Amino acid sequence: MPIYEYRCSSCGVQQDVMQKMSDAPLTVCPECGKETFSKQLTAAGFQLKGSGYYATDFKDKPKAEPACAPCAAAGSCPAANGGS
Ligand SMILES: [Zn+2]
Question: What φ, ψ does residue 6 adopt, rounded to 5°?
Answer without folding.
Answer: -115, 150
